[in-house]
Design brief:
Active site (chains A, B, C, D): 231
Number of helices of chain A: 8
Distance between the termini of chain A: 19 Å
EC number (chains A, B, C, D): 3.5.1.10
Pathway (chains A, B, C, D): Purine metabolism; IMP biosynthesis via de novo pathway; formate from 10-formyl-5,6,7,8-tetrahydrofolate: step 1/1
Family (chains A, B, C, D): Belongs to the PurU family.
Oligomer: homotetramer
GO biological process, one term (chains A, B, C, D): 'de novo' IMP biosynthetic process
Number of domains of chain A: 2
Structural class of chain A: alpha/beta
Strand content of chain A: 25-35%
Number of strands of chain A: 13
Chain lengths: 287, 287, 287, 287
């Protein structure tokens, strides 16, 4: 695998932008290996993901951002991020007591499915330490008092750890605590949560019980970026499974676990591949 | 097809009820062709659908209800309904301006998929009269004033028609008016609506626009019995389809149409087959 | 809706082709309203769909093909087709005895869902004439002898009709006859069939019986372009539905009908929108 | 959880059998907690799953089989099996080199999702020993020569181990070897395989490559009991996922992994719960 640069951008839609930017890459000997774009005609916004090989690219990697800035930001009102395929994202996992999502994430990591580092697992409970030990990953526990009196203090420690470990994004693998504004602002659209319902149905706690009470015929799971409004951030992925009147709250929980882990891992995959753009509290997912 | 009797019942769960009732049918020379039962262990309720041939059954059909009443109602606190396969349900369709569900219902009717009569189509608009004419079904239009000042009067006429035509159940095929308490009480759990969202998400009007605003990755449709609370009656059937950031409100409407007609027709099928029991604002759907 | 030109092309992948072609359109005052492209890195092939408004485009519409030919065909080894949004495709429907797909197609047509003309319905049976009459569309019947002795003669008449009616593509809506080489060659990748199985499982006749015999837990339907090999042409769309051991061949047929009509209509939609490219017996479907 | 007896039976359909058997259980003070039955009207076969509490049941557990034999086998031509909920099934896992199914099985086992024992993992490669060690489960490796010259000998050792460990059923978690007749006959309908296609499409090796070659729009996975004919045993569970022309053989493999592990684990769940009956190379799956 050759090293590549990945450019994710959006800007007001304007004729000629694709041809200009692709020409810029090509003229500088960048071999484009991926281009996908999308125009939101309702809002008049242009989105693009461009990936090119760095090998013969004439602009040094530490100058690329600066040059794109200079050439295009003002002219096109461009918002963009540059990533390099050989700089692995660093992922922290937050868990509470349920193991299914954590196992699924770590099994993929161990099998080499993802180009990612996982330097730490953080929890408010000791419960899942044995899994971290199975996979030889440091496990940090800071219990949170029932009255949340120490929550601020705990979060300060967590953020020190995240900083020290150069964490680039966070995965909440059925972590049962509200994330504070402070952490959300430090990782905007970089904290992925899995909610165990088909959002926006059944926001909040015990969604499977809510679903059973309502008598729905299909249940779902939703992965989304965390924002300050509960369960209301940009949706990355959803999936559903059929149920019947024979299901109980318990059987919904069991069926839901399979949904949760698959839906969460699909979101993590897309994030690691830098294929997600967020805009207006929605996601553009490149394929 | 031999004529059959269909018994739909529920009662508090009690040992021996299946064996007693099946024995009663068998002892009276009824050939059982269908038996399905379900126990809700949370609430301790027993549900059963039993169907047997009338040919050699020793109890005359007009005495069956009375005898089951006498023998079992008090003893088992039984709630039940008896239907006969050779007495076709009579279905009224209510429509407004959209044709896709109406066409789907009538195409099935005309192709003989359903053992049902459709004596009338009722609307508040002239728009779809041409379809009724294509299928030679009487089409009645009573416009409703914007201020709803004549709604009570219109509904009185509608209910006279329903009575005259001996309508046994009503299908709202994208009918854009609220049904009154009076009509709901006359047809309890016998008015089927199609809502164009995955309930309980996006209750009320313009659900596809709501879905697009929220940025969901899957949309759905829900058929349910109408109760006095909006979009909150017992759910009969739901289905979903995957969408992406490329979809617009318009494309959601187009994709949703296919969901709506399939989901509505599945519910109508189950109702016509007398395979739905309602309990606690939920449905038990026998297969 | 402003008139647009639609360019569907593929060629060996080569740096700079997107920027060159989009620049060509833009330089000639064509306002690009749609661009989607895809690179098959396995085979090194580039595919693109480009749509631009004709209003201010400086090249007259009858010269566009010629100019693209001259400028790019040789240089890029381009294969391409040009369509104009205001020139509606003309669709012929072939049917035998089953009505569900025909009703679904005509209901969409009548409701104005599709930008298409349907000048004729062709059959080997009188069975569905009443539907054609319901929708006021000419219905032509040429019975085919059981020994197929007159098949060649019938097809000659059919092809005369197709020519006379300027038919651009054909939809086989559960048409139970093999299409000859001659007709396939006249309409290459322009005859859409619906096969009532999840291809390549259950090729040939009675696929629902085959599925029931095999005891599958999911059934499907497949729409594809017709090629000379039976049920082996490029797949356009597939969908599935869950079944159980309780299903019979008859109930599979009933459930399958809903799949067939939806899957066929989705394929027809994509074809009418000129969003399908075929290559190597596969389809590229733009969204 | 109280201990229960589980009776799985089938026999020619005959009036009165449900009432007679449920009466027998009830008369002997067995509290029935589960009853589900199904009649295959095509073949005239009756299937039932009955579960009752052993606490007050007047017949000792070691006499139950004998008594049912005496009372009903001849009279009803009954085929049946008796299981006890407190006698856990013992499961052996066979693997080769891919880890995703193994991790998924062991994560569920460790989380206590299943009432099962897993005394051993058997492989023809050392590759996955680290996972067995992570979960503290004995891992046995017997390499198989490329010419299969030692296959018989290896299988003898494997069967000795299975016998010693009192294995009741086997799960092939992407085990890439053909199972011999001898082992199949020892575990008839008790060896569960996961095949990475939507059977009967793409039997044999490299199904994702076959699927990619054919250009399907949906891929699937199938869990089934192993019989002597390759990939042709009774299907337990299937599921599918949508793909597009953008997928490569590699991305199909990645997407397929999620299907495989979910579909395999659903089958294992049903098997452990003793909810599967096999008949005529099909499964009846109780819910």
């Amino acid at each position: 695998m050759k090293s590549t640069a990945i450019l994710l951008l959006h800007c007001p839609d304007k004729q000629g932008i694709i041809s200009e930017i692709t020409k810029f890459i090509t003229d500088n000997q960048g071999n484009i290996v991926y281009l996908d774009q999308y125009v939101d005609h309702e809002d008049g916004v242009f989105f693009m993901r461009l990936e090119w090989e760095l090998a013969d690219f004439m602009i040094p990697r530490d100058k690329i951002e600066d040059i794109i800035n200079t050439l295009y930001r003002t002219r096109y009102h461009l918002e963009f991020n540059i990533y390099f395929s050989d700089e692995k994202p660093r992922m922290a996992i937050f868990v509470s007591k349920m193991s299914h999502c954590l196992y699924d994430l770590l099994a993929r990591y161990k099998a080499g499915e993802w180009d990612v580092e996982i330097p730490c697992i953080i929890s408010n409970h000791e419960t899942l330490r044995y899994i971290a030990e199975q996979f030889d990953i440091p496990y940090y526990v800071w219990p949170i008092e029932k009255d949340h009196s120490n929550k601020d203090e705990v979060e300060t420690k967590e953020m020190e750890l995240l900083k020290k470990e150069k964490i680039t994004f966070i995965v909440l693998a059925r972590y049962m605590q509200i994330i504070s504004e402070r952490m959300i602002e430090t990782y905007p659209n970089h904290i992925i949560n899995i909610h165990h319902s088909f959002l926006p149905a059944f926001i909040g706690s015990k969604p499977y019980h809510q679903a059973w009470e309502r008598g729905v015929k299909i249940i779902g799971a939703t992965s989304h970026y965390v924002t300050s409004e509960l369960d209301a951030g940009p949706i990355i992925e959803q999936d559903v499974t059929r149920i019947s009147h024979k299901d109980t709250p318990h059987s919904l929980i069991m069926k839901g676990k399979d949904l949760e882990k698959i839906v969460l891992s699909r979101a993590v995959t897309k994030h690691i591949e830098r294929k997600i753009l967020t805009y207006n509290n929605k996601t553009i997912i490149f394929s």
